[in-house]
Amino acid sequence: MQRDKKKLRLGDILIQAGMITPDQVAVAIEAQKKTKDRLGKTLIRMGFITEENLIKTLAHQLKLNYVNLKEEKIDRSLAKLIPDKVARRHLVVPLAQMGQVLMVAMADPLNIFALDDLAFKTGLEIEPVIASEQDILTTLETLYESSLMDKIETTPEDLQAYAGEEESTETEDEEEAIVDEGPISQLVNLIISEAIKERCSDIHLEPDERALRIRYRIDGILKETSSLGPKFIAPVISRIKIMSKMDISEKRYPQDGRFKFTMDNKVIDSRVSTFPTIYGENVVMRILDQSSIIIRLEDLGFLPRDMEKIRYLIQKPYGFILVTGPTGSGKTTTLYAVLNTINSPEKHIVTLEDPVEYRLDLIRQCQINVKAGLTFAVGLRSILRQDPDGIMVGEIRDIETAEIAVQSALTGHLVLSTLHTNDAPSSLIRLADMGVDAFLISSAVEGVIAQRLVRLICTRCKEPYTASEAELKELRLSTDQEVVLHRGKGCSFCKGSGYKGRLGIFEILIVDKELKEMILRKATQGEIEEYARLKQQMKSLREDGIAKVLAGITTVEELNRVTPKEATFI
Question: 472 near 118, Cβ under 8 Å?
């Protein structure tokens, strides 16, 4: 970049290009004095110019190339040329080195001090290109993210020594002694503690011929975090099997185990599953953080009318209430929130779970043990002799459990359970298909809650935008109107994803007198749906999701991820 171009000021460039007025620059400069932000960021925040127009104008006026960092493959080795703090201070990403020239992406290529500092620190000539500030922040999080090896308090050489050869020849006792020693144990602890910090629900350790890939499931989405060399596959997985009290020598058959992990004075449970693959044992660890569970109905995401329906259902002294949805849709959390709401010293509530994921005060929780003969059906029969007021059955898996649950509800107990169905009306049909008599269904079932989980827009990088025509169609809105939606740009807080946390979308069906009569005459699913919509104003899962998109809580993309996308071409 030539020196005379460096002397140009951002405000002058934008005024010359006709993008803003001198008065707008003056107002932004006054605001800038208070916030200490860069002028470009202040102009964008005040709505005088969009980031896209700012970048395009600078690129054109300064004859610089624009780089879309989302589409660039960044060479991680270049990170060593610019220290982390320097890159973050000047908002710069190293892109390529050509001899003595270093190409860097910058949010503010007019910053003379940044260019001089970079030249001094690297000893290279700096050639700037322009990129969006948000893309730079997101890229920096990835580029300078500390790896597991950086964080562990030992040297890579020590770890390699403990990892040993890929094909281990140690005996079982020798192997157990090796993996229980410092470095490998420390590495596994670090994998788990990093997952807990990220509020991860599941840790996946996936071996292949080149590496042990580590992925975390955060807010329902799997994200690769790091990988270890192939020599680490055996010792790392063996260490986890020892912690989970599994047979370390059995590598050809799936195993299940459990262990407790202490972090920041909190005891966290983990449920572990191993599965043999052609490259070694695949391990999935479910993190059960007692402090992370939501046990207040108010925090689950029910809209006001749906909250009224829920409170109406759970205040009933007896009856059968079902929560439905696929695995990972938050059914257990909803059941726990209901239990926590109805729980009191005056009531005796018993649960049958597989497994018990979280411990609740005052509630008698029992874990299914099929090997010992304790199935849902067997446990449910025994619970009825325990004088319960309320019963929670983890899942209705067969006709025997379904019939006992229904009969329990008819004999004066409030029974809660789950089914794997796509929506609320289909749950009634599913019970009938399992073989439960229509009379028992109509007499016992009081309501069905269907649900999914959507990711929440990150509150720290949330921004408004005008909905496209395609999005308006998906939201069932007229395409001749202007609707403002929201999305997350991506920031360090949300690790560039634009999302942080999850919330439910719901469909609630009340089994009232008319619906009971429809069940008795074996009405179809379509007839039940039509009645619920017309007479109960039941919102479908998608309609509840649309309301939350329009409220700026989640996005159209998330809605399409968890509910069927509607055809916009019809």
Answer: no
Cα–Cα nearest to 437, from 426, 425, 445:
445
Instruction: Quickly tell me which residue has 């020196």 as its tokens.
Output: 3
- What CATH homologous superfamily does 297-457+502-545 map to? P-loop containing nucleotide triphosphate hydrolases (3.40.50.300)
List Cβ<8 Å contacts ≥24 apart for 245-252: 246/272, 246/274, 248/172, 248/175, 248/176, 249/172, 251/276, 251/280, 251/281, 252/276
| In the chain, domain spans | 10-62, 76-152, 183-289, 297-457+502-545
Name 85's Cβ contacts closer than 8 Å, sequence gap at least 6: none
Q: What is the CATH number of domain 183-289?
A: 3.30.450.90
Q: What is the rounded distance in angstroms from the CA atom of residue 41 to the CA atom of residue 367?
A: 55
pLDDT in tens, 372-400: 999 999 999 999 999 999 999 999 999 99
Q: What is the pLDDT of residues 313-370, one digit of tens each?
A: 999 999 999 999 998 899 999 999 999 999 999 999 999 998 888 888 889 999 998 8
Rounded to 5°, the CA angle 438-439-441 comes to 65
CATH assignment of 76-152? 3.30.300.160
Query: What is the rounded distance in angstroms from the CA atom of residue 501 to the CA atom of residue 461?
Result: 14
